[in-house]
Write a structure and sequence with these properties.
Chain A is mostly helical. Chain A is 85% helix and 2% strand. The two termini of chain A are 31 Å apart. Chain B is mostly helical. Chain B is built from seven helices and one strand. Chain B is globular. The termini of chain B are far apart. Classes of the chains: A mainly alpha, B mainly alpha.
């Protein structure tokens, strides 16, 4: 339970820090880079090395490559839905989560498994 | 174009918006850890790149832009959606650089200590993402052709006509 609480605090702090940077930086196109910053990865990989060792964390990082490719597809889908289809931000970004799920599952089944 | 820090942006974001980001970030870190211990690091690792925070950030950005335009007396605008799209375009480049971050961590972690691997991977991510952004911004390849720009302008003005029309008809109905 203590480990979960620690995970929550470290993850929350890392994500908030990158989100704050995204708020402060201008131009907006540059700040957008921080929308895909590896904040959750920094927190999780650090805790994974401490609790399970570097081998476990390296395996997580290998899967993260697939997750990042799925994130590229997700963000590109968001650009399409927002800029071309003019859908609302909440609808676009939540709808595109299914695209992230589909892309990540496909990469897991074809490449990682 | 120069990269700047805009400290006024701190006042635009309310305390509960910071709280939402903190809770979402903490929650996805816990979920990634739980999935890792239940189904193994192969599944847990996928969620290190889950876009947990992006939907909240894009929605807040759209809301802020819409409010700015409303204060300026413009009720109907797609400016907020276009600002969120710009944010998403940045995220495409950030995620491409994130792939290199993950590759470097995967290859380095078994041989080098954590305190060397993660800072180096983070610097690589920042440098590569900035380079992508710079090339996208300044290279002549990335500038739209005249015909493409004209088509886009026509599409935007047609959309504006439609939304303004809806606005006027809405006012008549009232």
């Amino acid at each position: 339970m203590l480990q979960m609480a620690l995970r929550f605090l470290i993850g929350g702090a890392a994500v908030s820090l990158f989100a704050l940077l995204a708020d402060l930086l201008r131009p907006k196109g540059f700040a957008g880079l921080f929308g895909a910053a590896p904040s959750v990865a920094l927190a999780t990989l650090t805790l994974a090395v401490i609790s399970d060792g570097p081998g476990y964390a390296a395996t997580e990082a290998r899967s993260m490559v697939a997750g990042e490719i799925a994130l590229v597809v997700y963000a590109a889908a968001c650009v399409y839905l927002l800029a071309i289809r003019h859908m609302k931000a909440a609808q676009s970004t939540l709808l595109a989560l299914s695209i992230w799920g589909g892309a990540a599952s496909a990469l897991y089944l074809w490449v990682l498994k | 174009m120069v990269i700047k820090l805009n400290l006024n942006a701190l006042r635009e974001t309310s305390a509960h918006e910071y709280l939402i980001r903190f809770v979402l970030g903490g929650a996805i870190t816990v979920i990634a850890g739980l999935l890792g211990s239940r189904y193994g690091p192969e599944i847990g690792g996928l969620f290190l790149a889950f876009p947990a925070i992006f939907p909240a950030s894009a929605t807040l950005l759209e809301k802020h832009e819409r409010e700015k335009k409303r204060e300026a007396g413009i009720a109907f605008t797609i400016r907020g959606r276009l600002a969120a799209a710009l944010d998403a375009r940045g995220a495409v480049m950030g995620a491409l650089a994130g792939t290199l971050f993950a590759l470097l961590v995967w290859k380095m972690l078994p041989k080098f200590p954590l305190w060397e691997t993660l800072p180096l991977a983070l610097v690589l991510w920042l440098v590569v993402a900035t380079l992508f952004w710079y090339v996208r911004k300044h290279h002549p390849w990335s500038r739209p052709s005249q015909s493409g720009g004209k088509r886009r302008r026509e599409r935007r003005s047609s959309h504006r006509r439609k939304t303004c029309g809806a606005h006027k008809s809405g006012r008549k109905a009232l």
